[in-house]
From TrEMBL:
Gene3D superfamilies: RutC-like (3.30.1330.40). Residues 7-140 form the Endoribonuclease L-PSP/chorismate mutase-like domain. Pfam families: YjgF_endoribonc (PF14588). This is Endoribonuclease. CDD domains: YjgF_YER057c_UK114_like_1. InterPro entries: Endoribo_LPSP/chorism_mut-like (IPR013813), RutC-like_sf (IPR035959).
Length: 155
């Protein structure tokens, strides 16, 4: 990575939350070789969950904001897995986004772009990744978005 991620976060005005604790019987991440698999992170702010159904309660733009919150939580988990040193992050490999949406809502890609755009904004080329953006009839706690990720770390 050609720039310091923490410096870039500060320049852009982003603050990583503390890495959220798992809500059930799973671990927040698993490192296999140089690939870090991060469990799904749900849309939330310090004030609580970002809830609602896209196409009914929320617009695609509001969904993209929810997806950005997921991306920040993903980076928090990466930071935790790296012992606090984000310089060990080499690239984002893949994001899978789940969008709590009505059957006729078709802008899941626009919603998940909130996370994808943030990764590129912060990490540059290392933030470009493979991706899936799918509809879900419901998500835990009624949240709007959940995103999981695979990241490559220094080996």
């Amino acid at each position: 990575m050609t720039h310091d991620i923490d410096t870039r976060l500060t320049e852009l005005g982003y603050v990583l939350p503390d890495a959220p604790a798992p809500a059930a019987n799973y671990v927040p991440y698993v490192l296999v070789g140089d690939l870090l698999h991060v469990s799904g992170q749900i849309s939330q702010t310090p004030d609580g969950f970002i809830t609602g159904k896209l196409g009914q309660d929320l617009s695609a733009e509001q969904g993209a904001e929810a997806a950005r919150s997921c991306a920040l939580s993903l980076l928090s988990q990466v930071r935790a897995a790296c012992g606090g040193d984000l310089k060990k992050l080499r690239r984002v490999v893949k994001l899978t986004g789940f969008v709590n949406s009505t059957p006729d809502f078709t802008d899941q890609p626009k919603v998940v772009n909130g996370a994808s755009d943030l990764m590129v904004e912060i990490l540059g080329e290392a933030g470009r990744h493979a991706r899936s953006a799918v509809s879900a009839g419901s998500l835990p706690f009624g949240v709007a978005v959940e995103i999981e990720g695979i990241f490559q770390l220094e080996s």
